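quick one
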Amino acid sequence: MNSIFNERPDRDRLPDDLTPVSIVRQGESAIVIAWSDGMETPWTAIQLRDQCPCATCREKKRGEQKKREEKGKPPSALPVLTDAEARPLRIESMNPVGAYAYNITFSDGHSSGIFSMALLRGQSRS
Ligand SMILES: [Zn+2]
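structure w/ zinc ion:
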């Protein structure tokens, strides 16, 4: 599982003095991360889940994109959701991994994503 870190280039690291000072829940499915420089980054569980950097999610995303391209469907086509996916997604827990990342557990049972501080800061948000 440590391969995630091997793939992370240094640009994913924030300056040493830029750290989260608090993570505040906004209801059950959103958080606001406050940073040491005074900036705040709001996230919903769905946004974070969508940004999940783990190999499984990256692979799945790539596969879905490919499928769309093959079918020539517009990206706005509504996906058919399973029961679990249709339920509001919640963030079950966030645990620090070293000083530079958080491991997030979602209510759909997914917990293999290691979110770098840079990602949480929104630097590489797409
Ligand atoms: Zn994932």
